[in-house]
């Protein structure tokens, strides 16, 4: 038995506006799922890198520690370690000319903060798409529903027939647009919330690593969670 309802009926019987709304919602759904999959893979990768970042401190010198972070230029922990090393070296080479005007702690803090800010911006790329889809898709679907109901009622009025079998089909097909809007918005909202939580975890680990790097380059000691500074056997270089 052929169904009187369905997205295909909406497509075949709908006008240009209805088809445009359907295409827009499908495009938004594809965009949101692409963002969710790509960013989810990134979060999993960064969490794995965060777990391995603790190996950095179990090294005899800085070069060995850097090698333990791998050669991946996209590794934020490796990039932060390089930023800290370059900032410390730059301060050592220039402070004589600046008459110690720049404090080494402030200089390294600024360099590490800039590195974290750049990574944060990269980490949040695409989240605006999910937020936009999650907030607008239900209203776009509702617009399609209202437009479809309006034209269905106009057609029924022109035909002069208002029996239930004539009303149920067009109205039901129009309501599918609302369901489509919700089907697009719900995964986008859930994906956005999950990615925000994952990003927060990664940034927390990165900030902790940056705090240890700052203490190491300034004092030669890594600040432990207990608040005491423990000197590690890691030579600067």
From TrEMBL:
Coiled coil: none
Location(s) in or outside the cell: Cell inner membrane; Membrane
MotA/TolQ/ExbB proton channel domain mapped to chain residues: 100-201
Signal sequence segment: none
Membrane topology: Multi-pass membrane protein
Major place of residence: membrane
UniProt keyword annotations, A-Z: Cell inner membrane, Cell membrane, Membrane, Protein transport, Transmembrane, Transmembrane helix, Transport
Membrane-spanning intervals of the chain: 20-41, 127-150, 174-195
InterPro entries associated with the record: ExbB/TolQ_transport, MotA_ExbB_proton_chnl
Pfam families, per the entry: MotA_ExbB
Family per similarity comment: Belongs to the exbB/tolQ family.
Function of the molecule: Involved in the TonB-dependent energy-dependent transport of various receptor-bound substrates. Protects ExbD from proteolytic degradation and functionally stabilizes TonB.
Quaternary context: The accessory proteins ExbB and ExbD seem to form a complex with TonB.
Protein name: Biopolymer transport protein ExbB
Provenance organism: Variovorax ureilyticus
